[in-house]
Amino acid sequence: MSDITIHDPVVARQTPRPDFSIDQCWDEYTADEHAIWDLLYERQVALLEGRAAPEFLAGLDLLSLSQSGIPNLDSINPALKALTGWEIIMVPHLVPDDVFFTHLANRRFPAGRFIRSREQLDYLQEPDVFHDIFGHVPMLANPVFADYMQAYGQGGLRALNLGTLHNLARLYWYTVEFGLIETPDGLRIYGAGIVSSAGESRYSLEDDEPQRIRFNMERIMRTEYEIDIFQKSYFVIDSYEQLFDATQQDFAPVYERLTEDKTSFGTHESAPQDRLLP
Ligand code: HBI
Ligand code: FE
């Protein structure tokens, strides 16, 4: 964590609390930072009609995210808390896994304070306030997905002690970050990494290159991922209940199989058991 350079002066001057949280200091965002948020927001919302899951779009409305500028936690948190008991905390950068999972297990979503520069509009490595609040938070307004995220945090804490964290990180990657859902109107996006990316919002649904595989938790836990290119595989759920139910099973036999049989799949590999969608 120490090699992260912090460009945001409001972040750099703060000493994180023991839970790694810092203050948002919302009134210290500059007009240009708010303008970058608006630019990203307008571009994504235009793209996401007919591409994002209805629950994601509903979350934008429920949390009044169409308001101009970077959201103020003092106004979005009471609305989110009333809906599903979740709240957003501000953090200076990626936090250690155990801290991250502990927050999720307590319905707290860690979001970066900084916003990307105009040179980084299309891609940045580190999650900024747009990726975290525009990408992740609307789905936290959906009760079933909100339950899944808390159960995921609890599972992550268990996985830390079992040495199976990398398997759990894959589950997060292929659902929370890059998940697709099948709806009566066709495939839709609910993953934060896709909805916050202009290019991948189109590519994930319309390009012939990636394979789209029906959700299979153990298969996901065996699937590698690359962080800085469009995904070569997407996993498609039938419902958010399917996601939540997957976290309610006893993980011990799953972890036993993952530990005994180390089979893993590359990002573009297919597996015999895969049920592919067109
Ligand atoms: N920290 N702030 C922050 N945001 C994340 O998404 C995050 C993190 N720490 C760890 C982490 N994600 C990963 O371990 C998860 O992808 C599993
Ligand atoms: Fe993310």
Ligands in the model, by name, code or SMILES, are: 7,8-dihydrobiopterin, fe (iii) ion
Can you count the beta strands?
Answer: 7
Level-1 CATH class name: Mainly Alpha
Q: Within the CATH hierarchy, at the fold level, what is the topology?
A: Phenylalanine Hydroxylase
> How large is the radius of gyration?
18 Å
Which stretches are poorly predicted, pLDDT < 50 over at least 5 residues? none
CATH homologous superfamily heading? Aromatic amino acid hydroxylase
Q: What do the pLDDT scores average to?
A: 95
Number of helices: 13
What percentage of amino acids are in beta strands?
A: 5-15%
**What kind of sheet is the major sheet?**
5 strands, mixed
Order of helices and strands: HHHHEHEHHHEEHHEHEHHE
Structural class: alpha/beta
How are the strands of the biggest sheet laid out side by side?
4-3-6-5-7
Distance between the termini: 40 Å
The number of distinct structural domains comes to 1
> Architecture, according to CATH?
Orthogonal Bundle
Helix content: 40-55%
Key attributes of the depicted protein:
two-stranded parallel ribbon, Phenylalanine Hydroxylase, binds fe (iii) ion, 47% helix, 278 residues, alpha/beta, globular, binds 7,8-dihydrobiopterin
List the helices and strands and how they pair.
Layout (H helix, E strand, L loop, with lengths): L8 H4 L18 H18 L5 H9 L10 H12 L2 E5 L5 H9 L2 E5 L16 H8 L6 H20 L2 H13 L2 E4 L2 E4 L2 H4 L2 H9 L4 E4 L2 H5 L11 E5 L2 H9 L2 H10 L15 E2 L1
Helix pairs in contact: 5-7, 7-8, 7-12
